[in-house]
UniProtKB/TrEMBL annotation:
Gene3D superfamilies: NAD(P)-binding Rossmann-like Domain (3.40.50.720). Belongs to the short-chain dehydrogenases/reductases (SDR) family. This is Short-chain dehydrogenase TIC 32, chloroplastic. Pfam families: adh_short. The gene is LOC100793843.
Length: 382
C-alpha cells in the first residue's frame, strides 16, 4: 500500500512496524575512530566558518555544504525517486530536499507512522511536494519483493534509487531469511530491491531519455571496521566469528562492491544508468540506536567531536549531490565523500571481489524472490 501525503492523493496509512530490542551496551569505538580517520587540515569557508575537514577540490562544493546548497537551482520536476530508510536522519532530509526540488519521492520505510510525521512536516514546509510512503523491511526478502511489486503495480516511473537504510553494530541475530542481520539489512535487502526494480529504471530511462541513477549509501567504516579479507563469505552467519562493528564494515564494503559491479554490468549493457556509492560523513543519527556511542562522553571530547561530526543537513548533501547534480552526469562506479569523488580502500576497488560478492549474493536469494515481477508479456506476477 502506498501511503500518500501529497495534495494530489488521499491520505491513508497503516502500521505494522515490528519493534526491535535496543542494545544497552555503550561503545565509543565508532566516534573515536571517525575522529582520527578524517582529514585534519583547517580552512575558512565563504562565511568565515572554520572546517577541520577542509573544502573539496573535486566539485563546486565542500564538506560543509548542505543538501539544499548542493541542489540549489536544480529542477527535478518530472523525476521519481525511491529513498529507503527515509523516516529519519539523512534519509528524511534527502526526501525533504529532493521534494523541494520537485522530485516525486517514495519513502521506503519500516516505521510507517514515523514516515507520516515526516511527510506532514514536508508538506507544511512545501505545500506542493509529492511525497508518498510504502512499507519496506530490508531485512526481509518477502517484504522487499512485496514493496517492489506494489511499486511496479502503481505504474510510476523510477529515475533515482537511493539505497540509504542501514543498521549499525547490532548484537548477533539472523534475519527471517537466516542471514546475519547487518548483512541482510544493509546489503542483501538493497541488492534484491535494486535487482527487482532495475527493469523499471531501464524502462524509465529509455522512455524519458534521462539518465537513471542508483546510489548506495556506504561508510568510511569499510576502511577501518572490517574483517581480514573484507567479506567472510564462508562465515557470514557464524556467531562465533561475529564482531558487530566489523560486521557493519563488511556490509558497507558490500555496498561499494555492489555499486561497482552493477556499474560495470550497466556499462556493458549500454544503458544510460549510473551506479555509485558514497560516505555521507560522520553524523549523529539514530543508526546508532543499538550503541550508546555518543552518550556519556566527557564534555571536552564531545566538543571536539562536534568539529568533525556533520549535522543532518550536511550529511544528506553528498547523497543529494550524487543523485541529482549535473556535475555527476555520466559518472559511474565511483565512491564519493564530501560532495566529490573519493577513494575507497583497496578491497572496495577489487574487481574480482565485487564479482564474487555479486555471485554470492545471488546464491543467498531464494529463487522465487528473483522471478521477474513483470513477465515478457508485461503481466504482473504476485
Amino acid at each position: 500500500m502506498i501511503i500518500s501525503m501529497t495534495n494530489d492523493y488521499p491520505q491513508r496509512y497503516i502500521y505494522t512496524e515490528r519493534e526491535r530490542e535496543s542494545n544497552s551496551e555503550e561503545k565509543r569505538l565508532f566516534a573515536f575512530s571517525t575522529l582520527f580517520c578524517r582529514r585534519f587540515h583547517s580552512e575558512t569557508d565563504q562565511n568565515g566558518m572554520w572546517w577541520p575537514c577542509g573544502r573539496n577540490g573535486g566539485s563546486s562544493f565542500s564538506s560543509s555544504s548542505t543538501a539544499e546548497q548542493v541542489t540549489e537551482g536544480i529542477d527535478g520536476t518530472g523525476l521519481t525517486a525511491i529513498v529507503t530508510g527515509a523516516s529519519s536522519g539523512i534519509g528524511a532530509e534527502t526526501t525533504r530536499v529532493l521534494a523541494m526540488r520537485g522530485v516525486h519521492v517514495i519513502m521506503g520505510v519500516r516505521n510507517v507512522v514515523a514516515a507520516k510525521v515526516v511527510m506532514e512536516a514536508i508538506l507544511k514546509e512545501i505545500p506542493n511536494a509529492k511525497v508518498d510512503a510504502m512499507e519496506l523491511d530490508l531485512s526481509s526478502m518477502i517484504s522487499v519483493r512485496k514493496f517492489a511489486l506494489e511499486f511496479i503495480s502503481s505504474g510510476l516511473p523510477l529515475n533515482i534509487l537511493i539505497n540509504n537504510a542501514g543498521i549499525f553494530g547490532t548484537p548477533f541475530k539472523l534475519s527471517e531469511d537466516n542471514i546475519e542481520l547487518q548483512f541482510a539489512t544493509n546489503h542483501m535487502g538493497h541488492f534484491l530491491l535494486t535487482n527487482l526494480l532495475l527493469d523499471t529504471i531501464k524502462r524509465t530511462t529509455h522512455e524519458s531519455k534521462k539518465e537513471g541513477r542508483i546510489v548506495n549509501i556506504s561508510s568510511s567504516g569499510h576502511q577501518w571496521l572490517n574483517y581480514r579479507g573484507g567479506i567472510l563469505f564462508d562465515k557470514i552467519n557464524d556467531e562465533s566469528s561475529y564482531q558487530k562493528f566489523c560486521a557493519y564494515g563488511q556490509s558497507k564494503l558490500a555496498n561499494i562492491l555492489h555499486a561497482n559491479e552493477l556499474a560495470r554490468r550497466l556499462k556493458e549493457e549500454g544503458v544510460n544508468i549510473t551506479a555509485n556509492s558514497l560516505h555521507p560523513g560522520a553524523i549523529a543519527t539514530n543508526i546508532h540506536r543499538y550503541n550508546r556511542i555518543l552518550t556519556g562522553i566527557p564534555g571536552v571530547v564531545k566538543r571536539l567531536l562536534n568539529l568533525v561530526i556533520k549535522n543532518v543537513q550536511q550529511g544528506a548533501a553528498t547523497t543529494c549531490y550524487v543523485a541529482l547534480h549535473p556535475e555527476v552526469r555520466g559518472i559511474s562506479g565511483e565512491y564519493f565523500a564530501d560532495n566529490k569523488i573519493a577513494k575507497a580502500n583497496s578491497l572496495g576497488r577489487d574487481i574480482d571481489l565485487a564479482k564474487k560478492l555479486w555471485d554470492f549474493s545471488m546464491n543467498l536469494i531464494k529463487v522465487e524472490y528473483l522471478v521477474p515481477i513483470v513477465d515478457a508479456d508485461g503481466i504482473l506476477r504476485e
